Structures
1.
Amino acid sequence: MLLHPSLMTGNECCERLAYYGISKNLVTYLKTKLHQGNLEAARNVTTWQGTCYLTPLIGAILADSYWGKYWTIAVFSSVYFIGMAVLTLSASLPALQPPSCSVSACPEASLLQNDTFFLGLYMIALGTGGIKPCVSSFGADQFDDSDPTERVKQGSFFNWFYFCINTGAFISGTVIVWIQDNSGWGIGFAIPTVFMALAIASFFSASNMYRFQKPGGSPLTRVCQVVVAAFRKWHVEVPHDASLLYEVDGQNSAIEGSRKLEHTSELEFLDKAAIISAADAKSDPFANPWKLCTLTQVEELKILVRMFPVWATTIIFSAVYAQNSIFVEQGMVLDKRIGSFNIPPASLSTFDVISVMIWIPFYDRVLIPIARKYTGREKGFSDLQRIGIGLVLSIVAVACAAIVELKRLEIARSEGLIHENVAVPMSILWQIPQYFFAGAAEVFTAIGQLEFFYDQAPDAMRSLCAAFALITVSAGSYLSSILLTLVSYLTTQGGDPGWIPDNLNEGHLDRFFWLIAGISFVNFLVYIGCATRYKYKNV
């Protein structure tokens, strides 16, 4: 058994505990400590989460082009830790927090208080984004995917890697959130900071055991070279015999650390970049990739183009997942009492995590062996089938949230609480199904994305393609923010309170959930069309 992939999963567990120790209860901190309203707090959370999944492009380009995955993780982990420390100071020092609310008003946070808090928050976004595309692919690099036995273990690695992510999320959603709500935000942010330090120490402890893949140069440059070379030869006819296209001799390609890719017949125009023209034969074009590219370099770009429709259709899934902050706000106006114990609304998202932690062992140990008998595939389901199942489950999750909200508003009306900004007598435990289905959707779609973008990526673009998977989360969060803004604008015309007012008893949050469910259903139909047309790569 390889030890270092196991250490990578432990490292990820600590890092995710640190991340979710901030993000799980962030909407509560913004509302109770920085005195922001429901809409502003939800928008700030989704925008920050979106940034956390946009910055992976920075880490991916640096890793694939110059630093390699190891040093990229090392540098951005340090940025991450500094951001955690700044955030902890912001929550600990009275001078960096606005005064508490009085009976009549809640003082706004000063410029210094806001700037300090958001400086730490966005340093975390840069740090986590920088390392995120590298950690999963660096862990998967420890397996030899040319060995059938190790390839199966690699598929299992992604499942257990995600399991460790959710172990960290589970601890954050229970213990850390409880500490933040009951013992103070200073200590509540300090504990995740300590776990981030443990994650960094765990990563460096196995440095002499890792397998390293050399960076292959800038993937963006190689893409541009193919486009430029193809347009230079737009008038040249593509030969019917693919063996006439330019490729270096030997097993490995001209790209550092990359195997050769087989020719595919689609996107024929790009093949022009690999044609050795009469003008090329008279000169020395092999030293100028802006005039002549290898077949493998052309196929790299074709893979990215083929991936794009699949990538685009998973953005809506991420928009559904971004509704977690809205789920928390919904929980705030439900009855949080279980006997003598009050459940913090953010802690209920733990059922999402529990669902993931139940589904991953079931999927890995039970479902895959059964599916393997029927499909003959090593992994049971194809990556695209797995993603599609998750998209269906995400629609079910939002529909459950809409049904709960319909019932909650019905109770609010019957109890005469419409104009009272108070919780209604309906147990918060009714939110469990929406969190459970959201967790099941993650196991299928989120892990399926990780595997799909790693397996289908060119060897020298794996960090970049992992970043593409993460950018769907960013795009989904930004889409959610845009939807929240549009819904607020369109539904508050004429003095109406709108669908998502500060007093949710006056609103129609159920309509917002149905809107998301409807968009998700249309997106699923588009995804089916894209998935059925997709052609897998051949090395």
Note: The mean pLDDT is 85.
2.
Amino acid sequence: MGIDNKICTITPGIFDAEREDSSDSYRSDEPETLSVDDVLETIGFGKFQWKLSFLTGLAWTGESMEIMILSILGPQLHCEWRLSSFQVAFITSVVFLGMASSSPVWGNMSDKYGRKICLIVSICWSVFYGLLSAFAPAYGWLLVLRGLVGVGVGGGPQTVTLYSEFLPMKMRGISIMMMSVFWSVGAVFEVLLALWIMPTLGWRWLLIFSITPFTIFICFCFWLPDSPRFDLLTGNTEKAMATLQRVARENGKTMPEGKVIAHKQKDRGQIKDLLSSQYWRTTLLLCFIWFANVFSYIGIIMLTSTLLQSGGSCGANQGTKPQPCCNLECNYLTSDDYKDLLWTTLAEFPGVLFITLIIDRIGRKKSMATCFFMLSLFILPLYACIGRVSATVVIFIARAFICGGFQVVFVYTPEVYPTENRALAMGTCSAVSKFGSLIAPFVSEVLLRKSMYLTLSIYCGCSLLAGIMCLILPMETSGKSLQESTFNKEAGADDHSNESVKNTTFSQD
């Protein structure tokens, strides 16, 4: 596998060396062997992670706004450009097509060249084409430009990859869930922008203002370090140790004394590793779970706009009866529609709060399964003929659960794969999930007009199946350290056939 094993000795100025060990083989003059997780646990969660949370959170907010804008842009262009339902649905699908095609590429590049550079490039790409799409003169141009925006947004999951690799083990679950608040803030902010901008300035200005979080990220990205786990894996030990010392310094902590062993991995970011005997079952199950999460999440968002326009599930049911109607018949979203959309979007906050309270208590697998099962349960009332208020309440609760479950999968995936292909795994799962995004608009906007019961049955059945798959995942990652390399599991302690051991001493300033 082309692995070089390097031992980096950390010698801080202050270290409490008093330890109790009853073993006769213990030697006090030999430094303790440490992993990156051990170093991060000692440094703890502090000022550095708070800054990192805010900066990566801006990227997460921007991606959320680009997703949320799709449910607002569709009804507007349906009326303004006299588009058919299929044309409106394709505006949404083309964005996710771009994300699906680019996510594995961004993941592969992140495993080969670093998380930081790929994240910055993907966000710059999104800003550039997001700005251009605001000046699209016709439907064809808008499709191309929004598709290219999707290519850039496809690098979004690498935000979580980078963030998770700086977190202490005990804080990883709750920290990633905390960052998911930025996703909810982005969704709410997008609706508030639409409520303010759409009646006066129109959708073009909404597209321009929607890239604001990405623009702020670019302005401050110079502060962002690359992952020390990635640097150790690529043999850049000096940079990795300098990053860890920077984290300790900003947190007001001292580095622990000991030897950090790094496994230099030359073959990184290969898709075959995700389908190896160790990971193939996890990969296939996770791909469907990601698909179901995105399919349900986007579906609920799109369903909200459609049901609100029809006045509730009762109106949607009546709309499915055969009657002469124009294919171009449209209704603009009103202020009341935006307010109801805002209320259902606010459901993401209690969803995140709920999952934050249970994720470390019952584990990642059961948390995801719980959200899927509860989503299915709260879809059932929509089968009845309920009014606008009741439909809003039901969608509010359903969206809370799917949002919570969506965030858990971002916690679980980077925990279950090693550093050498963690970014590729995130990108691949994200790419598969985008097929759910491609299908969801046609189900929520086109199929719903034909049969509401069939539409709801598809979402309900998909959620139930995904919940079962969550429970049969091979590994529960709660309370476990991040894997640095498959070498950790595949190689024995006495096997040094592919290793060259080097000792490098790093001193803390």
Note: Residues 11-28, 318-328, 489-509 have pLDDT under 50 and may be disordered.
3.
Amino acid sequence: MEDVGSVAARVGAVWLALVLALIVVPSALGVSLGISEAYMWVLVKTLEWATIRIEKGVKKPQPQMLKTPAANGIIERDETPMEKEIAHLHQADFEFSDIFYFCRKGFEAIVEDEVTQRFSSEELVSWNLLTRTNVNFHYISLRLTVVWVIGVIVRYCFLLPLRFTLAAIGITSMIVGTTMVGQLPNSSVKNYLSEVVHLTCSRILVRALSGTIHYHNKENKPQKGGICVANHTSPIDAIILTNDGCYAMVGQVHGGLMGVIQRATVKACPHVWFERSEIKDRHLVTKRLREHVADKSKLPILIFPEGTCINNTSVMMFKKGSFEIGGTIYPVAIKYDPQFGDAFWNSSKYNIVSYLLRIMTSWAIVCNVWYMPPMVRKEGEDAVQFANRVKSAIARQGGLTELPWDGGLKRAKVKDSFREEQQKNYSKMLVRNGSIGNLSTGTESD
């Protein structure tokens, strides 16, 4: 037993030494030895081969899927506005045929609405030898199955231990480093060391995800005293962004592992964590954010205005609170490539540990980050209009579908005001067309 224990200790020591020398130290220094690039090249070639095998193996013609990011659906929707669609049925009077429009919309919502599908993983156009979320997947060939089995062995027996080791080093370094820096008095030295710790640990954590990140338009990177807003897909969004710069973060208080990290990092950097259920905290958060923005020497604030994770096919309603603070807004669009791994976190289904396990057994995390020109609130523009303008810009840049719905619908019911708005729109049509006046005249004559 002692021999087995000593051999295991030596193997562990060699493993740790290789990880530190080949990955951790180069990552901390911002240097690449080409290992990630070589891995991605092999991975891309393998997936290309698999795609060709799948196409050859499919004997029956398959219906071509749409190429848009939101093309997971089974309904081809008609986007004609209600007023135009009903108007061609009649000129003035109310007709019972008007209800057909609302019936069709109701059936579409029952079969497949455009909101709840944003809270589940995106369907893939072609199988990536990783997940069977693709509804069109079926057995193709023995050779492809063998490659998939080899992939499972590689991901669970090699990549998972490697990524777990890197994640443990990165998280431990983050907790220990920020705790130690947090003991220092407030000064420029503390701020500098805090930025070094955050940047170094983020680089290690990105390596733990086999992350390949492409940053575009770096001349538009958020500046101190500003507010960085981005679409939200996953908790790793923050790691993706802090890999290229430091931010003061704003978000919901979590429990478990995430809570430990939050409590440690807030000691070294003025992050703002709050409980959504406490309305008093909202006022406190707004006050602290305004004070933060007023100090041009502080790190830019990082906010995800959607308030929840969306599956990276769309951008949902931005909460107006982030746009009432004032200051300069720096929009950032984040778009993940689902072919290499699903970055979306369904917090209603998975806790953070289960989610990280799924991420660490994927092929890689590949994404594009676009820094966009700064935006300021126009004269006469309210917070809601400003938020919608920023949301539209992010959606266009990231190639995402823009939706007016609140991401809070993941856990809450639709507000009555949404239904009442459709009723008001229809009643305005009747008034404008004279239907209500004609009905009133007919009633009086009777």
Note: The two ends are 102 Å apart (CA to CA).
4.
Amino acid sequence: MEVSALWNSHTVSSATSIALLTKHCKWEFAFNKQTPSFRSRRSFFVVKNVASKKQTQKQQQQQQQQQQVKPDSASIASSIKYHAEFTPSFSPELFELPKAYYATAQSVRDVLVVNWNTTYDHYEKVNVKQAYYLSMEFLQGRALLNAIGNLELKGPYAEALKKLGHDLEDVAKQEPDAALGNGGLGRLASCFLDSMATLNYPAWGYGLRYRYGLFKQLITKDGQEEVAENWLEMGNPWEIIRNDISYPIKFYGEVVESSSDNGRKEWIGGENIVAVACDVPIPGYKTKTTINLRLWSTKVNSEVFDLHAFNNGDHPKAYEAMKRAEKICYILYPGDESYEGKTLRLKQQYTLCSASLQDIVSRFERRCGESVNWENFPEKVAVQMNDTHPTLCIPELIRILVDVKGLGWNEAWAITQRTVAYTNHTVLPEALEKWSLDLLQELLPRHVEIIRLIDEELVNTIVEEYGTEDLDLLKEKLNEMRILDNIELPCAVLDLLVKSHEIPVENSDQTEEDSESDEVAKVTDKEEEEKSTDEDKEIEVPKAVSPVDIVKSAFEPDPNQPKLVRMANLCVVGGHAVNGVAEIHSEIVKEEVFHAFYKLWPEKFQNKTNGVTPRRWLGFCNPELSKIITKWTGSEDWLINTEKLAELRKFADNEELHSEWKEAKMIKKLKLVSFLKEKTGYIVTPDAMFDVQIKRIHEYKRQLLNILGIVYRYKKMKEMSAEERKSKFVPRVCIFGGKAFATYVQAKRIVKFITDVGATVNHDPEIGDLLKVIFVPDYNVSVAEVLIPATELSQHISTAGMEASGTSNMKFAMNGSLLIGTLDGANVEIREEVGEDNFFLFGARADEIADLRKERADGKFVADPRFEEVKAFVKSGVFGPYNYDEMMGSLEGNEGYGRADYFLVGKDFPSYLDCQESVDQAYRDQKNWTKMSILNTAGSSKFSSDRTIHQYAREIWSIEPVLLP
């Protein structure tokens, strides 16, 4: 019997049994006519087993009526008490905050499951084309407030919890952030899911269920320390583990020929594990549409446990296979400096791709019924690869189509290219993944065969495009574009090149005179040869170089360099669309990163400027400002149609709006003051400017530039009298947040330096409230939801041309923060939308960077005296005994790895200081500052993820919204 992955087996009879049980509970549940909506919904919260086709028309009508009626606070309170009693994760004696959270979350999930099942029941029936978004990260944040906000049930839930003795906000704080991501990649993916559901697009997300996340960040006297996340320690009330949805995943083994003649192979032996589905509902805003985030966990079948070894005392051997399987989903981005670490990362990526594609193919076949036409697969399925991590989707889909479903190579390759698309998120070479061919060959031998075939097709295309006459040009293009790097050319291509460089033989008929002339010439040559002196004989005449030698010497791999598989190139070749995530980034992708591919296939390349969901990142995290926006724009429509934010422009000078705007900001600043005290122990004044930089710690994001600017500010303050300081400087609280990757030593040095500067400045009685420096530990979505609404100046100061887009800049602008930044990523478009006068711009432009680095390499760069001054101040030891020579050494010299100021901190430092002086001056004029803040919010309408998803849907996925009946 066919059963949808989202259909549960709960029945009406089981709900009736629960209703009978409730009569004997110490809490009243009374499923009576007074409050039928929520209770009945809970009783029947799982939709029928649709595959059975046995549900009566009366039951269908009853469910539709139940879904149309929203629960009131009394029925919600009853549901919460029910879950506290019957689905407990805690002892029954008390109803404290953790228990209240879990019971509340489970009651919300009941509502979601109805919509969830209804959504996919409908999708199954109408067999719509569906998009599948594959990402190694989904940084969801807390789910409770977002879910009840999208369901428009925040008021009833707050009232219900109040009746039960708890405050909704206190209950919501009990939820740990889902540790399924780290930076902007995961936050973007989560915003996209919210928009897909809100806009009623048929779509799913696929990811991995990381048990310990990336890491939990602790800040100690030694800087950043990492410990495992514990987000699943108490369970996750939002997820449903689908034990009936699992797929085999294979590693290692060998490939053998199949008896078929269509290129099919058999992959046998090796290590076998199982990927099990775990589903999380994603509700849309003001819609019943509730889509799915399917996360994979890994295990082995129980028979793999070696009971004999266990009983003999060899416990490690007994559970060795279990641990190998389970650790695939332990950690996000495990350290990859070791061979074992690289192997584990590759296993993670393949697990995501293989399990997801097997699931997608299974769903396609089920929806097709008995008549499966594989040519229609791209008409029903769109697969989006979020960065290069899911690249193995390409060879894996081909493997499934050829080896499992029996399609021919050409058909499978064409289907794959029409199905898959790729989003590029970086221009950093180290982030454009390259895997060792030897590792891939060992771990995924069948996929290497497929990749070789794809590479051979690409090589033939390149040869056809550029010809064989100019071997230097051809070599340049092959080196740039091939998927296989530093690997010999296919034999057929080598033969072609050799033939094209052979000296042609003249076949024309010769006259007798010609023949005689040739004979005379031969005799003359022989005589001349005999007359040559002994000395002449010692001179060696160079042999003619054969075409084989010419070609081999031109294209022979370098034995001193590794053999690699370039995943980004595979993405470009294997997909039908390639998009960047901001206008400037997409131009860099076309003109620099993939220029040769762009010249070959210009139709593939697109721009899709990122966006963020205005529901979570303004509506729910900043209700004070949201109410003001609703008042002045006339409705809540702006939460879906963000274009309405532009209506604020006509009120930008209104004094009443100014007053309300400043009051809302102060409420958020006071909340942040309490938060900082709780998390760091530091006490700050809300009257200071709140200056924030919250990003993954990386040299190109230039937290080092920010903190050196603060150090310079501190030094100048120390040189002044108290009166001079007060007149010269605006009080500032400078806040940092972000994680440095565990093995990124330089980034961890920067974290240590920021905390050392804070420890010195924050305890300096001469400075007082004029300057505070705070590093917020363990930055995540929930922390951002406190920081962003309170921020007045946010820093987006990456080296121009190196940030693909950024999304925090969009969130800050939406919440009325002013931005200081370079012309990088989405900053360019934000500045255009909010107005040049409302954006603090500094620094070199992207098109200047290459020449500036060359200037440095040539020894022509002359540092600003202020930069030399601040470096000397740091080296003086004023911030403690820690040796910062290595960190500061990155800013010194003209060449060398980790030196020569590759990220141009020194070059942009004077421009940055001047711009910060402009910020101080602007902040003193609070009336104009408030106007600028309003105009930032008004100009942020473009940066909704709704707009981005509409563009993906229309221009890449070719899917349409599907409204539920």
Note: The first strand starts at residue 130 and ends at 134.
